[in-house]
Design brief:
The complex is a heterodimer.
Chain A lengths: L4 H8 L14 E8 L4 E10 L4 E10 L2 H14 L4 H5 L3 H8 L6 H32 L1
Antiparallel strand pairs in A: 1-2, 2-3
Helix pairs in contact in A: 1-2, 2-5, 4-5
Chain B lengths: L35 H4 L10 H15 L9 H22 L1 H11 L14 H18 L6 H32 L2 H31 L8
Classes of the chains: A alpha+beta, B mainly alpha.
Bound molecules: FE2/S2 (inorganic) cluster (FES) and zinc ion (ZN).
The site of FE2/S2 (inorganic) cluster has 12 residues of chain A, from helix 2 and helix 5.
């Protein structure tokens, strides 16, 4: 299958590959998989506690070129956004940006789900911490 | 689905054709159904008799072969081409238990319900992820992970075996009950199987390119 130039660009120079410390309270980790093909993706965000803005994002994807490109793009997009803004990112925007063909739509779904899962994970950690702090005071 | 409403009268003689491939009255070839089970004259069941399916496939290949229709009407020539294409697709899908189950799920509309990642058990996902990382190190030249990869392969083969056994019994339960919740369970197992199978294939590829001479002893 012919990949678009944008997919190839992200595939050849993926942005933000790597990982953040998942035990850091400011880090949210989203790990998702696409049952259609068995590919897996991990996306992590680092949230600035003062501003509530995503300061950094990293990903690691074991999957096809479109999944790698989608997650690379997703990390670029979430940086500098608040959690609420990041939650609004839709897989269809990724599809448009990367010109993904219909059979590759699930790869972009994977990236959208990974963002959501990372944010959920961060919120869960924060809520747990606040509950603890509430009990302590 | 449109093919369920196909004309049930023979295009040639007008007698009822009852969805069969050939008219019982004039023997002419009918427009083939796109339903794989019906095409083979089978009940839509998840457990099927493989030997019977194979026998039927060869019979139908012969009966539907376009060469037999060279001197027949253009309608039948066309139908024989269509039928041959469906026959091959149907056989490929029905003979393979996983493909067959996917087909039944799609027909039942279970497919699009939850195409998302969340339904998967996080422990499996983490395991898949770790193994992929180990594979990456291995590809990068770190030979020390080889024993771990071999163990993982054994483990995943065992898991696949369990999944397949689970599928077998779910197939039976579905054939008896036709219960939609059984289909949902099948969906879950098939998803798991996909990840496991994917890893087994990757492991096989990596471990084989590593030591091609050891592969013959298998
Ligand atoms: S083919 Fe499955 S994630 Fe791209
Ligand atoms: Zn007839």
């Amino acid at each position: 299958m012919a990949y678009s130039d944008k997919v190839l660009d992200h595939y050849n120079n993926p942005r933000n590959v790597g990982s953040l410390d998942k035990n850091d309270p400011r880090v949210g980790t989203g790990m998702v998989g696409a049952p259609e093909c068995g590919d897996v993706m991990k996306l992590q965000i680092l949230v600035d506690e003062e501003t509530g803005v995503i300061a950094d994002a990293k990903f690691k994807t074991f999957g096809c070129g479109s999944a790698i490109a989608s997650s690379s793009l997703a990390t670029e997009w979430v940086k500098g956004k608040t959690l609420d803004e990041a939650l609004k990112i839709k897989n269809t925007e990724i599809v448009n940006e990367l010109a993904l063909p219909p059979v590759k739509i699930h790869c972009s779904v994977l990236a959208e789900d990974a963002i959501k899962a990372a944010i959920e994970d961060y919120k869960r950690k924060r809520a747990a911490r606040e509950a603890l702090a509430g009990k302590a005071s | 689905m449109s093919h369920f409403r196909q004309t049930v009268e023979c295009w040639q003689c007008g007698h009822p054709a009852e969805h069969s491939l050939f008219c019982r009255y004039c023997d002419s070839l009918q427009r083939p159904t796109a339903d794989y089970f019906r095409f083979f004259g089978l009940e839509p069941r998840l457990k099927i008799d493989a030997a019977n399916l194979e026998k039927r496939f060869y019979e139908l290949s012969r009966l539907l072969h376009p060469d037999r229709y060279l001197r027949k009407s253009p309608t039948e020539q066309q139908y024989s081409l269509e039928a041959t294409a469906i026959l091959n697709d149907a056989y490929r899908v029905l003979r393979n238990p996983v493909a067959r189950a996917e087909y039944v799920l799609r027909q039942a509309g279970v497919e699009s319900l939850e195409p998302r990642a969340r339904t998967l058990d996080p422990a499996l996902l983490a395991e898949v992820f770790e193994l992929n990382e180990a594979l990456e190190e291995f590809r990068g030249g770190d030979r020390s992970v080889r024993p771990a990869l071999e163990q993982a392969r054994e483990r995943f083969l065992a898991q696949r075996g369990e999944i397949d056994a689970g599928l077998e019994s779910l197939f039976e339960r579905y054939d008896e009950s036709r219960a939609p919740n059984v289909l949902a369970e099948i969906r879950k197992l098939l998803d798991r199987r996909k990840y496991v199978q994917n890893l087994i294939e990757q492991l096989d590829r990596e471990l084989a390119t590593e030591s091609t001479d050891a592969a013959t002893s298998d």
